[in-house]
Amino acid sequence: MLNETIRIEAYTGDRNRLRDLFALAEDAPIHLDAYLHAGRVLVAVHSNEIVGYCQLVETATSGQLELTSLAVRESEQRRGIGARLVRAALDLAAAEQAAELVVLVAEAGVGGGWCCSGAATGTR
After folding, report:
1. Are 69 and 35 contacting, i.e. CB atoms less than 8 angstroms apart?
2. 21 torsion bin: left (phi>0), alpha (psi -120 to 50), beta (else)
3. Measured between alpha carbons, how far is 73 from 47 in angstroms, rounded to an integer?
């Protein structure tokens, strides 16, 4: 699959249809239930199938968005889809004149929980 066959778009459908994708980035179903319907979601679509997503949520700080969750189906990984989702999130934040996009980086499934491997804040 070539990147050209992937499109990134806003998702406005039923979030429960994305639960399996969200579960790739969340080990605890109770946590997933708490944020599944929050914010906005961008999806990566290939052959009319959603293969990845990222979620953007406004924070308590004015002009700040947080990229709270991102996942790509394992069969579609290492093809630049995650990078394209992050780029689309940055573009959306800029279009909405957000001053800052916060990204927390963690990995699900490390020792049965989360392992924080870094954090980044970008400003324009």
Report:
1. yes
2. alpha
3. 14
Q: Using CA atoms, how far apart are residues 86 and 70, in angstroms rounded to an integer?
A: 9
Please name every residue paired with 120 in a beta bridge, in sequence order, or none if there are none: 103
Which CATH class name applies to 3-123?
alpha beta
Sequence-distant contacts of 103-108: CB under 8 A, at least 24 apart: 103/66, 103/67, 104/66, 104/68, 108/24, 108/25, 108/26, 108/27
Q: Does an H or E element contain 64, and which?
A: strand 64-72
pTM: 0.81
pLDDT digits (tens, 9 = 90+) for 67-106: 989 999 998 889 899 999 999 999 998 888 888 888 876 6
Pairing status of strand 40-46 against strand 49-58: antiparallel
- In contact, 50 and 43? CB cutoff 8 Å: yes
Nearest Cα neighbor of 79 from 108, 43, 103, 52 is 52
